[in-house]
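Sequence in, structure out.
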Amino acid sequence: MLHHLIRKLEHFTRLSDDDKAVLQGLSRTVRLLEPGADIIREGDSPEHVNLFLDGWASRYKQLEDGRRQIMSFFVPGDLCDLHVFILREMDHAIAAITPVRLVQVPREVLLGLMDRHPRITRALWWETLVNAAIQREWTVNLGRRTALERLAHLFCELFIRLRAIGLTDGNTCAFPITQLELADATGLTSVHVNRTLKEMRAAGLIILKGRQLTVPDLAALRKAALFNPNYLHLERDGAHLSANA
């Protein structure tokens, strides 16, 4: 059930059969959520780490007048904040975009796993650092890129993240994100997003149809986005820690 997480972590190091069995053991208690449901709300006391098995979700912050900023998207294999249970209360919320199936990993289970399995611990450190790198890149996106570059960059990032865990089919992947959600993630209006998507379609950079994204020419989309995938760190920096080394 946790093959997406395992596949992602193995971009850092090769895990042993025992490591994989331990991770698979995390999937005993599964929670199902409908689209739009809050997985955790701002102000809630976090007591476990959420691990996505299936479905998409977003991390967001909402102002008192209803304006929303989406700060990240979660796909299968993602963990929501490895040490979130250290906090007394949540300072943001996480909501399901699609039907979501996730595992709630209790604090004591995660801490025990990390105490006993150092290779998994290092791989989870890597996952945490990659998430921080993604947040830095999103800051650059909001502060310096044009509207077309922002959207193209987001499409590149999500496509490559999905490809890394085996969730692309050639140059196509699932893409359930609405134009309103794209606007809230890129700091644009929905009207501006709509106009920019038309421009991207006309240029042959993307095809969006039936909640699917097709990238006819990834190199061209990367060029349009000024996209450098180095911040995703998918080049096995931890190869020297491999169980098969």
